[in-house]
Amino acid sequence: MGTLRGLLGFLLLSIALLGPSVSMANTTAWQAVQEGGQVILMRHALAPGVGDPDNFERGNCSTQRNLSDQGRAQAVAIGDAFRARSIPIDAVYSSHWCRVRETAELMALGEVQTVNWLDSFFIASERHAREQRTRDARQRILDWQGPGNLLLVTHQVNITALVGGGVASGDMVVVQPEDGELTVIGRLTDVR
Q1: Residues 158 and 133 sit within 8 Å (Cβ to Cβ)
Q2: The domain spanning residue 178 has which CATH number?
Q3: Termini Cα distance of the chain
Q4: Which range of residues forms the domain containing residue 31?
């Protein structure tokens, strides 16, 4: 029983200490995107489950894992948070997957352009495209020079391939393209 209490105490302390660092990371990232010139890598909003069904078809939403009602509300809330903070978005790109495109559309931050280089490569039939999609996305990010920000709504595997770490549904990694490198500025988590 004493070991369990000790473990519980450690976990509570860890959560308490983690809170300020998450908040600080969000603050730094928010400041960067308010200034513009950044690239925001966002994982689609909440779509319960993992991967897609075996009968997956890219153009058929009924064969895909889709946003839940909570995921739709999350996407709208994230768009509202960007508008409330006057975050300048110059361009919005998304993968062709329905949950990703719907996330970008519900955020209502600009016209959404679907592109192959943000498509997932999680399922076996798409794994062959991992290197090419990652290379193309990286180049697009490095080429970004807008006064505003570039919003890329995609999948966890794509973000991990680009910056070495994933994000939860609806979370974002803010990167700055400079000198041929992607510098991670911070993360935007639990945005509302």
Answers
A1: yes
A2: 3.40.50.1240
A3: 39
A4: 2-188
pLDDT tens string 71-96:
999 999 999 999 999 999 999 999 99
Based on its alpha-carbon atoms, the radius of gyration of the chain, rounded to whole angstroms, reads 17
User: For 166-178, what is each residue's pLDDT tens digit?
Assistant: 799 999 999 998 8
High-pLDDT (> 90) share of the chain, %: 61
Question: How much helix, strand and coil, in percent to the nearest 5, is found in the chain?
Answer: 50, 20, 35
For residue 10, what pLDDT is reported? Answer: 36
pTM of the entire structure? 0.84
Domain count for the chain, please give it.
1
Q: List, in order, residues 6 or more apart from 68 with CB less than 8 Å away.
A: 46, 47, 48
- Minimal CA–CA distance to 155: which of 177, 175, 138, 172? 172
Give the number of residues written for the chain: 192
- Nearest Cα neighbor of 63 from 51, 72, 45, 73 is 51
Does position 11 have pLDDT exceeding 50, yes or no? no
